[in-house]
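Example protein was shown:

_____
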Amino acid sequence: MILKSSTLNSRALPLSLILLITLAVHGPLLLMQLPAGSYDTNVHIFFASHYAHHWFSPWNVKWFGGFSETTYPPLVHQWIALFSHVMGLQMAYMFVQLIAILLLPIGMYRYARLWVDEVSASYAALGTVFLGSLGMLVYQSGQINTIASAALVLNALPYFYRWLRYARFSALLKAVVIAWAAAAAHHVTMIFGSVLFAIPVLWLALLDRNDAGEDEERCCEEGAPDRRHAHRTY
């Protein structure tokens, strides 16, 4: 029994299983439209309603005598507006919220994989499904933009690492595009995410580059085979 338990604990959870668990936990709650009565949900639906009817005109005349909707990051509201033509505004809100929640464990796995092994990263991703802060943001505060932006930031940072570590232009392109999307979803989350998460990734990439360079020099001097650190996967 001990051997079986240790073997089970040494296996990483498949990301597909984590996403199915996420869907099983949050899918029914969103189908029940539980966030509909949360603090900010109706405001976001109101913004999305304007884009659904006036996609190319950000000026909304229905509030404060008229204001520009681009004073708030527009991307999530535009996603809701697009899906609203198929399923209505309220269900479109729930659907976009579900997409953001599903992106979160993916981003957490990829970010954690920079620092820890595959098993630990998979359990870190699973932990995001049951975060109390996630439940508060989704079902009490209605902060759909914050969740979407945080998930996108976590997905962008591994590409920044790959660019800094291996100088791959394609990684830089992907990182910039996803980071722009994160800023368009919620700029404040993007700013704080850059400080709290991007700086450690920059530090890690520079450390790994220096370590790889020292290993190459040591191997050349000693005439030993090149034994570089294993590539980080995410």
Remarks:
- Confidence is low (pLDDT under 50) at residues 1-8, 219-231.
- Residues 187-222 form the longest helix (36 residues).
- The chain has one domain: 13-222.
- The first strand starts at residue 59 and ends at 60.
